[in-house]
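F.,

This is the one I mentioned.
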């Protein structure tokens, strides 16, 4: 997986397979979506949504690493965009908060996920939840559209995180904000980890340093950057043993590298004072 195109192809293929399964299948099957043990790496990070209003079990594939809607300060009537919306789990919770007068747009680049999300929306009879096929490095939404953007364990899968946060800035209204849950690192993963496709698609080996992640957000022009949640992710030995020797696992644990799920909040300023170049120049 040396190029951005190869990384995207890997992620798209694996999540297309996962889209065909239920949450229970993902949780209970050792072999999971790809036919090899260890796919539990996809769902070991998930938080429990079942107590949240708007929760729909059919939309919950157990793939998240946080509860961004819980922290997103969504108000009735808001337009909310969910990046990497999957089967619609966060989108349906967001819609419950935004209400009949609100609008929720889910974006995902995996066609089977979009199909499943649309099917779920149709079953629920929701006419103000829309799912669009698209790459979040080039969000298929007009500028200054969203009051709130949420995302759950998705941006770590995207090679160009600078481009994503630039797009988030573009799509948010002036003065609007995002709440994003994602996987980041404190310390370095062994080089071998980055060659394991399941660990990339499972949100681990695509993660970057926490400080770098927060710096990208700041460089994109956001203000009032706040960590709303920070929890350590521990990958069980029985999963790691599918990919690494016992000695490699011990060496990783002794390195004290921390894999962490963060939920980060930030605001787009009401006035853009970034001194950007002309549109299309790539400066901002």
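My design for it:
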């Amino acid at each position: 997986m040396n190029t951005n195109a190869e990384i995207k192809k890997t992620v798209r293929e694996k999540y297309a397979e996962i889209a065909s399964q239920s949450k229970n299948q993902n949780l209970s099957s050792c072999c999971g979506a790809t036919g090899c043990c260890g796919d539990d790496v996809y769902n070991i990070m998930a938080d429990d949504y079942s107590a949240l209003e708007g929760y729909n079990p059919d939309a919950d594939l157990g793939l998240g690493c946080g509860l961004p809607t819980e922290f997103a300060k969504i108000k009735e009537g808001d337009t909310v965009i969910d990046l990497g919306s999957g089967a619609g789990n966060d989108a349906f919770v967001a819609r419950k908060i935004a209400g009949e007068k609100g609008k929720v747009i889910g974006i995902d680049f995996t066609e089977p996920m979009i199909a499943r999300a649309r099917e779920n929306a149709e079953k629920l009879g929701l006419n103000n939840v829309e799912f669009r096929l698209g790459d979040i490095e080039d969000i298929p939404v007009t500028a200054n559209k969203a009051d709130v953007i949420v995302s759950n364990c998705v941006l770590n899968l995207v090679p160009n995180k600078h481009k994503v946060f630039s797009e988030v800035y573009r799509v948010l209204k002036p003065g609007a904000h995002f709440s994003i849950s994602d996987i980041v690192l404190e310390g370095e993963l062994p080089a071998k980890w980055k060659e394991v496709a399941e660990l990339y698609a499972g949100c681990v080996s695509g993660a970057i340093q926490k400080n770098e992640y927060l710096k990208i957000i700041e460089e994109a022009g956001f203000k009032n950057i706040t960590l709303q949640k920070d929890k350590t992710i521990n990958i069980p030995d029985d999963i790691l043993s599918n990919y690494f020797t016992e000695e490699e696992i011990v060496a990783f644990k002794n390195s004290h590298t921390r894999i962490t799920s963060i939920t980060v909040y930030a605001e787009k300023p009401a006035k853009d004072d970034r001194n950007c170049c002309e549109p299309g120049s790539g400066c901002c």
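Residues 1 and 9 are 9 Å apart (CA to CA).

Talk soon.
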